[in-house]
Amino acid sequence: MTTSAKRKDKKPEVEAARPPAPPGARAITACIAAWVLPGGGHLVLGRLSRGLAGLAVILTLFLWGLKLDGQLARPVPGEVLSVPASFACLGVGPAYFIAAGLTSTHHGMGDILSATNEMGTTFVICAGLLNMLLILDAFDIAAGRKG
User: Fold this and answer.
1) DSSP at 145
2) What is the pTM of this model?
3) Angle at CA of residue 123, ends 122 and 128, nearest 5°
């Protein structure tokens, strides 16, 4: 019997599926950095171009939304949909609190009479949601789930 015939007879052994390893300190650090500074998680992981692109896109969306008289969503008692919108806005990180603190210049308050108010509010919410996706991406990279 030839060696090639022996190889055909043997069935390949299937390795037992291992449970995924728990995320380490690197993944947690990347997530915190990504929330504090959009794209920061990728910068911590050495993905410079992706981190800088994320920073530029998210901050541009957020600041442009504020410039278009967008509102920072805040939870309003009795309005159920204000809670997920507030959570989405918080995805931007400390920029949300900085903009909310600038009440003297009316940033984050929006102008509901402005023609661009709804578009600006949509930009602000999308910036937060996009940063949440970047946080998850940084987590997956740090946990070894993504190359």
Assistant:
1) S
2) 0.77
3) 100
